[in-house]
Amino acid sequence: MKLSIAFNSTLFLLALNSPVNAAVLYSNLDTSNSFDTSSAWGNTYSNAMEFTPIASGAIISADLALSFSTSFAPYTATISLYSSANSGAGPDILLESTTVNVTNPFGSDTLTSVSFSGLSTLISGQFYWLKAYDSNGGQLWNFNNIGVQGYFSQNDQSFSNYTLGAFRINGTTTVPEPSSIILLALGLGSILVTSTKRRT
Predict the structure, then answer these.
(1) Minimal CA–CA distance to 128: which of 151, 146, 111, 144?
(2) Residue 166: which of 59, 12, 10, 27 has the closest Cα?
(3) Which fold has domain 21-175?
(4) Buried residues in 13-45 as b, exposed as e (16+ CB within 10 A)
(5) Domain boundaries, given as residue ranges, for the chain
(6) Alpha carbon distances (Å) from 162 to 138, 151, 165, 178
(7) Do 52 and 98 contact (CB within 8 A), yes or no?
(8) What whole-number distance in Å separates Cα of residue 144 and Cα of residue 26?
(9) Cβ–Cβ < 8 Å for 112, 63
(10) What contacts 24+ positions apart, CB below 8 Å, involve 181-189?
(11) Contact of 15 with 187, CB cutoff 8 Å
(12) What are the tens digits of pLDDT across the range 153-171?
């Protein structure tokens, strides 16, 4: 009996040990990861962009086309991730927040990268918002250059069908290997057989 339990446990552990792959969960950057360096939302305190992930996974970082106006200094931005029940409803439930120093002057083609904890899981097809806040009011968020439009919010006022600021959401996805699926099936089958024998 102990041997059977140990065998079943081993099979399950092996089956659950699926590889974790890096993945882009959302992006409106072009194929060379570029954006519009001549147009942006701002100068303002906050901008938020709605997006829908193309894949499910844990968010680990984001790359945003944030910059500062020449009449302002570099600033520290608070980057927040929200979920939303419906499209266009605006940022709803705060999932995670972090800060990043924005040092790119307007016209720069460099993205601002920010790290997340990896504990927030995004679901493909659901609605989320990425919000950048700057207490100095000098924030600029450059447009994407591939024509992606949607809902965005500026200083907590929502608008629709406008060009979105450029950004990319990076995450990890877990993809079961065929061998893991086979091991999982063996483990379930073994438990079923063991359970049947114990009842008889």
Answers:
(1) 151
(2) 27
(3) Jelly Rolls (2.60.120)
(4) ebbeebeeeebbbbbbbeeeeebbbeebbbbbb
(5) 1-18+176-200, 21-175
(6) 21, 7, 9, 43
(7) no
(8) 13
(9) yes
(10) 181/15, 183/11, 183/12, 183/14, 183/15, 184/11, 184/12, 184/15, 184/16, 186/11, 187/8, 187/11, 187/12, 187/15
(11) yes
(12) 999 898 888 999 999 999 9
Is 50 exceeded by the pLDDT of residue 106? yes
> Per residue in 30-69, pLDDT tens?
999 999 999 999 889 999 999 999 999 999 999 999 999 8
- Predicted structure pTM score: 0.79
Give CA separation, 31 vs 144, 145, 147, 168, 176, in Å.
Answer: 12, 11, 13, 12, 28
Distance between the two ends of the chain, CA-based, in angstroms?
15
